[in-house]
Amino acid sequence: MIELNSKAPDFELDGSDGRRHTLSEFKGKYLVLYFYPKDDTPGCTVEACGFRDSISEIKKLGAEVVGVSHDGTDSHGKFRDKYSLNFLLLSDPENKMIKEYDSYGDKGIFGFGTLRKTYIIDKSGKVVKTYEKVKPEGHNQEVIDFLKSAAKN
Fold first, then answer.
1. Looking at the annotation, which residues are catalytic?
2. CA 88, CA 26: separation in Å to the nearest integer?
3. Does residue 4 lie within any of the structural domains?
4. pLDDT digits (tens, 9 = 90+) for 8-26
5. What mean pLDDT is reported for the chain?
């Protein structure tokens, strides 16, 4: 379990842009780090398109969005292109980061896999908000509301 206000676990993963990415490159911004089960599935598409449609407002609030799943970079590229996703997707085929962020577990009838969770990491690299058992529809607005309240403090 990742505690609020604790340092976010570091990572080094390949992205949908063909580059390796680490947590440190997001220092100085809020990072909306969301974990999702699988590219191009109904719930994951709704969630990703919500972030896509809200990305300009999220960026105005000083944040970046990054999605993480077990899928490979080829799958991420196809998913990104199909839905014109305008944010980074990271590939974690070994589930290392997914497990470090407590986002791997029992999905009931679907067996074990990536759980739908979101973490908001502040400008200094601390976890300031966790969303457990995310509902894809409207999640982008929950994140925006949190970022707006964080900006006031």
1. 44
2. 12
3. no
4. 999 999 999 999 999 999 9
5. 94
